[in-house]
Design goal:
Helix content of chain A: 55-70%
Number of helices of chain B: 16
Helix content of chain B: 25-40%
CATH architecture of the largest domain in chain B: 3-Layer(aba) Sandwich
Structural class of chain B: alpha/beta
Largest sheet of chain A: 2 strands, antiparallel
Shape of chain A: globular
Oligomer: heterodimer
CATH class of the largest domain in chain B: Alpha Beta
Largest sheet of chain B: 6 strands, parallel
Strand content of chain B: 15-25%
Number of strands of chain B: 22
Number of strands of chain A: 3
Strand order of the largest sheet of chain B: 3-2-1-4-5-6
Radius of gyration of chain A: 22 Å
CATH topology of the largest domain in chain B: Rossmann fold
Strand order of the largest sheet of chain A: 2-3
Shape of chain B: globular
Amino acid sequence: MRVRVDWRVSVSLVGTILKWLWVPLTGPLVLAVVDGSALAPFALTMAATVVAGVALESLADERDLRGREAFLMVSLTWLAIAVVGAVPFVLAGEGTLASPTNALFEATSGITTTGATVVVDFETHSRAIHLWRAVLQWLGGLGILVLATAVLSQLGVGGAHLMETETQTRDVNKLTPRISETARLLYRLYIGLTAVMVAVLLALHWLGVAPEMTPFDAVSHAFTAVSTSGFSPRGESLAAFSPAVQWATVPFMALGATSFVLMYFVLQGDLSRLRESDEFRFYVALLAFFAATVAGVLALDGTFATTEATVRHAVFQVVSILTTTGYASADFNLWSPAAKHVLFVSMFVGGMAGSTTCSIKALRWLVVLKAFRRDLFTAAHPSVVRPVRLSGSVVDEDTIRDIYAYTLVSLVFFILATVFVVVDASRVGLAVTEFEAMSAAAATFFNVGPAFGIAGPLASYEPFPRSTKLAMVFLMWIGRIEIVPVLVLLTPSYWRT
Amino acid sequence: MRIVVVGAGEVGSNIAASLSADHDVVVVERDPATVEELTYSMDILALEGDGASRETLREAGVEEADLLVASTDQDETNLVVCGTAKTLGDPLTIARVRNVELLDTWQASQGAFDVDVMVSTDLLTAQDIVRVIGVPGALDVDPFASGLVQVAEFQVPAESDVAGRTVADADRFESLTFAAVVHDGEVAIPRGDTVLEGGDKVVVIGTPAGVQEFSRTVAPGQALDEADDFVVVGGSAIGAHVARLLADRGVQPRLVERDPERARELAEALPGALVMEHDATDVDFLVAEGLDRADALVAATDSDEKNLLVSLLARNVGVKRTVAVVENGEYAHLFETVGVDVAVNPRRSTAEEIVRFTQEGRVENLSLIEGREAEVVEFEVDADSALTGRPIRESIGDLPDGVVVGAITRDHEFVVPRGETEIHAGDHVVLFVAADALEDVMTLA
């Protein structure tokens, strides 16, 4: 069989991205110099990624990226960064991350903005390693290929293919005639949002309401909140900080999961977009509904002594899980089954399309709901032709079919993953309940992070067998790039003419 | 007046025909067969050629022409024809378009594309239809004086309360004037003792409320207030406009279209309408979907025959009122005879618009009665007018026979015209004028 896909082009472009990975590595390196901790893990990784990058880059001279090559490139890029991202963990050799499998799990969880960790003792790791975890998440947040399109001018038109492939939900909304300019606008907003959060956290510290919030913590958390990822350098996550910090974090997680294109227009002064966006209203309504439900359950259970604490933890936890961030403001593993199950359901929701969120996303659920309601109507009136409308414009039937299919495939993957987790755990004699397995599968596949029980918010994924961890690496990878680019590679027709 | 008509399709040749009696008409057409046919059937000059070429337009005498009507089948061609004509002379340019986007652009910036008047046949027809279904019993309703005045034509049913009565008896409406009675196709100006018979048509001029009130007397039991269930059959351009206009008024019309692709297209374009994909001649479908209980049904498919069939079927299953679009003007009367409540001819609406511009600029609105037996015209009276400064009773004597002062508006207020009413300079008057008296009236008044 002759391969018809120009894979050299894809691999060569992945090389270019790897080559530039030395830049984000300078952050942890500088911190290591300041702290006097080991430099080698970062310096060696920088050298390795540049060498590997240049070598791969030389595979092709003509690098015209077409739609088909984009699938391969997107899939490989995320995997390659996860592999390179794992190297410093292994080289540092600290704690549980010294094992290559754990390192790969941690790096994949980082770049895919999942936030599931295999770190057991947070104190054994240097601040530089913790910063690297946060930097990986920040890079993954808005999509590594959006960043590549913004920075690497040689991608040119190919950038449109890449951004479209990376976010399956919708055609790329070009804000400007040039795709690279659009990508830059989105990134400027992303950087701005991150900077504002750092400033807010530091301000709280100086005001004396956030004693624990050091500049290092502020940066680490801003990187992982705005990117809705969820790593924290603290073992207790956000529970280590004051209520003021927890309240301040909520809006940044929520904004991270709001469409950046929408935010861009609002910042331009076009407030009417908020009202006109069906998806935004649906997203806000979902947050409000889940938060109110959890608050009600917690109040009935009497989990917290004060109303403020009840509301704060309900709102924080719902925003954290629904936006797929995965911070914990309390050990929600100790909450009543009712509260935990509501949180579990919110894992399947996700924020708006075109944001840093993962999971199925509000947009898809809204289209599914609207299409289904339409189908119920036409069941009674078969001759009626009624298009599904979103924010006033028609959603074409092919898109609806794709969204139905995507939602179904996601749920099937989730079920298969659950079964795998249970089977694999029983193979090694690890006790995992069905709910724990379901939540672990959902938390990794939908890139949420913490699960319930064994892999709860203050626990770790470390106890799972190696095979399960590798399966979860696969789940996080395909979950983050929305399944399709990877599954396309598995079809024989992709490789033929 | 010298008039150049470019494009002798259905509308173009109809305009040429209606203007050829009083004006010098030159028609430019690309199809040689049509040119040949026009030359021998009408007293006009028909030229073969491309209306967008300077050479042809010069040959047609655009330099001296007062009016140019661009009515080819292509919108863009019509715009180019107007633009080309303006480079040669300064005729008043009228372009017929289908695309409402172009109309929007033109309305936003008058004079755009070098077009002085833009007319959309489909939209005009749709507006006619929507007005007619808003007034039960009416055959035609035209707005005058920015909507302060309506001119409406009604058919008096034999079972109606007014049938068999005299006009003086029937005219109990303060703000309404009986302008004409059409009996067996003869237009006559009614006097107090004229008896209205079943089957007669009456033309009334008055306030919209007055017209509405009159409609309740003529067609009792069809009160408009609760009429909100409208069905449009056929997703033609006219049908789509009707559905959109109704949707804009806040009622959700049902639009039935047989072709799946067109139905989908319409459903996407008309969020306010409920689009159904089905053949409207299927009686089972009409009944199953409750279309038989509709207040009014508009048949607007592309075929006259189909419109007739659909209207009659609808009438038969119980729809209260049917309106059919009829492209062939000669059938209009026939449609109404066999039981369609109102037959609307798209070309008439366009012709009214265009004839208005041949009336030397003074006429602001115009409506044609019974073909061109009579016209209702609106204009502003000046100080020199025979109407100004004295009671209507006196001034009417100086005007030819066949004139009725239907309505007066002063400073955007309706004034009831009675014998003793005095007309001031600056007032707008709506006159009913018999065709043969029109020229004299326009000079005197």
